[in-house]
Amino acid sequence: MKKISPAIALVGLAALVAYVLACRPAFSPDGRQVLLPVVEPDSGTITIVRHELGSRTALPLVALPSWEQGDDLPPMAMVRWLPDGQEALVAWAIDEDGPLWLMRLPVGHQRTPTRLFTIREFEGGYLSLISPPPIQGHHVFLGGEKIVRLDLDTGAQFEKGFTNGVVLEEQGDHIYYLREHPSAENQVEIGWLNPETLDLDPHWSFVRPEELDSCMFFAVSRDELRLASAAYNEDGQCRLWLFAGHDSVRTLDLGTTNQPLVLGNLIWSPDNRSLLAAAFRPAAIGSDTTEVCLFELDLERDAQRFTPVFRMEDSDKESTSTAMFQVALSPDGRWAAISNGLLHGDKDPQPSRRLFLVNLSRSNRPVTILPLEGRVQPPRSG
Q1: Domain-embedded: residue 1
Q2: pLDDT given at position 17
């Protein structure tokens, strides 16, 4: 079996597939379209699909290189829109120790050429694909056991290595990072990345209990005054850390051995009062069926809400992880999107590759199911 790099080992085995197969939809800047990766289970080919929400039609844009079934680390693909809404950035890897590929893909009406970039010998480069890579101007920033700044116009690269793997998130004009502290055991460090020098400026830290795996998901509120990070383990114990300013506001234990819960990526609501995440829990106490939900945590009222999206049986989980699903929020905050486009073991009789839209503007949180082919199903209440 292939050796796992320290950058991947630091997130814990329970979180491994969370980024190896992460599947986060990407809303266009105007909120009218969604880009997402979709895998063909038989061939392993990943296709980037554009979904027009108005007409409810899906259009395949480009197919990425396939992978061999049974590989220790299946590929990961992440897609995000460029700020002008006319191009997308697609990033993927087909080998944990191999190169990281990036594509500047035209998706609008402009007839611009497709451009392909390669970052070779990028050990731990999968960490750069946990979240959409940050972009500032014409530069994209990629984290792992080194941070790489790539010029999307010229292809020029500048890099800086680090002892532990680094995960990057952007908010406003800033790029934030998260990593395991290089010298303090079980301590997680979060701060800012200097985009010019690629130096790290630590600001927050917390001690992660040994029994919890660091899932490497964290989120900064839109006003950049609050920060949240979560960790969990394979038994479903889940803890959330909330920060304001330099100090930890509080910790919340959301999952227990008896009532397990796993959270995917975290997103702050536009008003900075609530947290959203893809969540995974048993459909019932003692059940072998996992319920994939949209989790909402109202921090002002300390209220939790789960909106069921779909379910997976044990047979579905043999080749995937319940932490592989990620949620995206529309620019206006009215819609949350979750996809099972990279699910490998889906035995559901409905079309197996679907986009799920949760209407956050409605009190009953109806879910619209958009098959990636065929007719769309009507909304259902959550």
Answers
A1: no
A2: 37
